[in-house]
Amino acid sequence: MSLMESFSTESYGGYTYLLTPSQPTNIDWSASSTSSYDSLSEENLKITSPEPFGRNKSRVTPFVLRKRRLAANARERRRMQNLNQAFDRLRTFLPQLGQDRQLSKYETLQMAQTYIAALYDLLDQLF
């Protein structure tokens, strides 16, 4: 009996899973065994990467790659627009110190941090 035959297997959704050994294996794991694993033949230990059927990376056409890239660009553009809108909304809650220009994102975060700390100190003084 080979090593692989001693394990029970089950298949689900195109994948084969090795379960616990159905019978105890008699493999000598002591130091006297050879380091080349002669008792474990390569024929019995073939490992294949489980890939779903119909998916092969080498068959992706340039058209599909371009559509994926365009979709990823659109998602990133939408993400950045939402982030910029959130910064604009945050700037409306911060006090204006007579600045002619819009605060950068970094300056906005610094100002918000300072403003929150000042409000906290004000509340602390009142109560």
UniProtKB/TrEMBL annotation:
Family annotation (InterPro entries): bHLH_dom (IPR011598), bHLH_transcription_factors (IPR050359), HLH_DNA-bd_sf (IPR036638)
- Which Gene Ontology cellular component annotation is one that this UniProt entry carries? nucleus
Coiled-coil region: none
- Answer whether the UniProt record assigns the keyword Hydrolase to this protein: no
What are the entry keywords?
A: Developmental protein, Differentiation, Neurogenesis, Nucleus, Transcription, Transcription regulation
Kindly list the GO molecular function terms attached to this UniProt entry.
Answer: DNA-binding transcription factor activity, RNA polymerase II-specific; E-box binding; protein heterodimerization activity
The answer to whether keyword NAD applies is: no
User: Localized where?
Assistant: Nucleus
- Gene3D superfamilies from the entry? Helix-loop-helix DNA-binding domain (4.10.280.10)
SMART domains reported for this sequence: HLH (SM00353)
* Annotated Pfam families: HLH (PF00010)
For the BHLH domain, which residue ranges apply?
67-119
SUPFAM superfamilies linked to this entry:
HLH, helix-loop-helix DNA-binding domain
Q: Name one GO biological process term.
A: sensory organ precursor cell fate determination
Q: What is this protein's record name? A: BHLH domain-containing protein
This chain's source organism reads Leptinotarsa decemlineata
